[in-house]
C-alpha cells in the first residue's frame, strides 16, 4: 500500500474507533401516558400557582390527591368512585363561590381508607411524603355515612344526592367473552375485583353476585379465585381495574357504571357489559360534615351544592341519577 494511502486509512480507522466502540441502544418506547394514571393530565387541580410541573408517568404521580395543601379553605374526603367528576364540580362550585378559587384540597382514595385517615387525624403517607389535611366533609355511600355518624366520626345529618349502578368493565373487544355476572365464576376468566376490606363497592358487588348465582358464585369470585390468583384484589378499584384490563392482566372487573362511561369518554380501550336490573344493585351517595371540621361552614356549603341542579347535571354526564328519596336496593 502506498505510504500516503496507509496514513489516510490509519487516520480514518482512528476516527471510527470511538464510534464503533460505543454500544448502540434501541430507542425505548415512551410510557403510555394515556393508559397510566392520572388520566386528567393535571386538570383535577384547582391550584392557581402550580410552580414546577413534575409528573412522571408510572414513577412520580399522586393521582388521587388534588389541589394545594398549603392553606385550604375546604378539605374534602371523597370516595373515589367519581374522581373524574370532581374537577368540573369544583370548577362550578368555585364559579358560584369565587372566594374558594384555588383553595380547595380533595382526596379520592377508597372510603374505608379515608376513614383510617380521619382516625389518624388527617395524616397520610404516600411514598416518601407525609402530610396532614384534616377533613371538613366526607362523601361516600349513604350506609357508610350513616354508620360513621353513629360512631361519632361524622355529624348529623347525612346529605344524599346521587345514585349509581354496577356494570362489568371489560377490555375493548371483550376477549374473555363475558356476557354476565355468572361468567365471572369461570376459572379461565381472570378478574380484577375491589377489596372488601376497605372498598365500599365490594358489598354491593357481593349482593349482585348472590342475585345472579347465589352464595356459590360469590364464593367462587371472592374466595376460590382469590386463592388461586385468578381474581386480583385491587386497592383503588377506580384506578386499578381499568389499568389492569388495559395491561392484559385481567379480562373483567365489576365497577360502577359511571367509571366505565368515563373510560369510554376518555378514549381508552375499555367497554362494559350491562348487568340487568334484576341482578344489579343501586348505591346512594351521601356526605356529612366531619366532627371537629376546621371549616365547618364551608363543608355545609359543599353539601348544599352537591345536590343542586348544577352539580347533578355534572353527575349525569357519567350516568349518575339524582337521589329521589327511595331506599337502596341492596
Automatic annotation (TrEMBL):
<feature type="signal peptide">
    <location>
        <begin position="1"/>
        <end position="26"/>
    </location>
</feature>
<dbReference type="GO" id="GO:0015689">
    <property type="term" value="P:molybdate ion transport"/>
</dbReference>
<dbReference type="InterPro" id="IPR050682">
    <property type="entry name" value="ModA/WtpA"/>
</dbReference>
<dbReference type="GO" id="GO:0030973">
    <property type="term" value="F:molybdate ion binding"/>
</dbReference>
<protein>
    <submittedName>
        <fullName>ABC-type molybdate transport system, substrate-binding protein</fullName>
    </submittedName>
</protein>
<dbReference type="Pfam" id="PF13531">
    <property type="entry name" value="SBP_bac_11"/>
</dbReference>
<keyword id="KW-0732">Signal</keyword>
Amino acid at each position: 500500500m502506498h505510504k500516503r494511502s496507509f496514513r489516510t486509512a490509519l487516520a480514518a480507522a482512528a476516527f471510527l474507533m470511538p464510534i464503533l466502540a460505543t454500544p448502540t441502544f434501541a430507542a425505548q418506547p415512551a410510557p403510555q401516558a394515556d393508559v397510566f394514571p392520572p388520566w386528567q393530565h393535571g386538570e383535577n387541580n384547582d391550584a392557581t400557582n402550580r410552580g414546577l410541573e413534575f409528573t412522571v408517568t408510572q414513577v412520580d404521580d399522586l393521582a388521587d390527591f388534588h389541589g394545594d395543601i398549603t392553606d385550604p379553605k375546604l378539605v374534602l374526603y371523597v370516595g373515589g368512585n367519581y374522581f373524574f367528576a370532581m374537577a368540573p364540580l369544583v370548577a362550578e362550585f368555585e364559579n358560584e363561590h369565587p372566594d374558594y378559587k384555588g383553595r380547595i384540597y380533595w382526596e379520592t382514595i377508597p372510603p374505608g381508607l379515608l376513614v383510617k385517615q380521619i382516625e389518624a387525624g388527617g395524616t397520610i403517607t404516600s411514598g416518601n411524603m407525609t402530610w396532614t389535611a384534616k377533613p371538613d366533609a366526607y362523601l361516600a355511600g349513604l350506609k357508610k355515612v350513616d354508620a360513621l355518624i353513629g360512631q361519632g366520626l361524622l355529624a348529623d345529618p347525612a346529605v344524599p344526592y346521587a345514585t349509581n349502578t354496577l356494570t362489568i368493565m371489560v377490555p375493548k373487544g371483550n376477549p374473555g367473552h363475558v356476557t354476565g355476572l355468572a361468567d365471572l365464576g369461570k376459572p379461565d376468566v381472570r378478574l380484577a375485583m375491589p377489596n372488601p376490606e376497605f372498598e365500599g363497592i365490594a358489598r354491593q358487588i357481593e349482593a349482585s353476585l348472590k342475585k345472579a348465582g347465589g352464595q356459590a358464585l360469590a364464593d367462587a369470585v371472592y374466595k376460590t379465585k382469590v386463592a388461586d390468583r385468578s381474581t386480583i384484589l385491587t386497592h383503588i378499584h377506580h384506578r386499578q381495574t381499568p389499568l389492569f384490563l388495559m395491561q392484559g392482566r385481567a379480562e373483567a372487573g365489576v365497577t360502577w357504571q359511571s367509571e366505565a362511561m368515563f373510560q369510554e369518554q376518555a378514549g381508552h380501550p375499555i367497554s362494559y357489559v350491562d348487568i340487568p336490573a334484576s341482578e344489579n344493585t343501586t348505591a346512594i351517595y351521601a356526605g356529612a360534615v366531619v366532627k371537629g371540621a376546621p371549616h365547618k361552614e364551608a363543608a355545609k356549603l359543599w353539601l348544599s351544592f352537591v345536590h343542586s341542579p348544577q352539580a347533578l347535571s355534572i353527575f349525569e354526564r357519567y350516568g349518575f341519577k339524582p337521589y329521589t328519596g327511595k331506599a337502596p336496593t341492596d
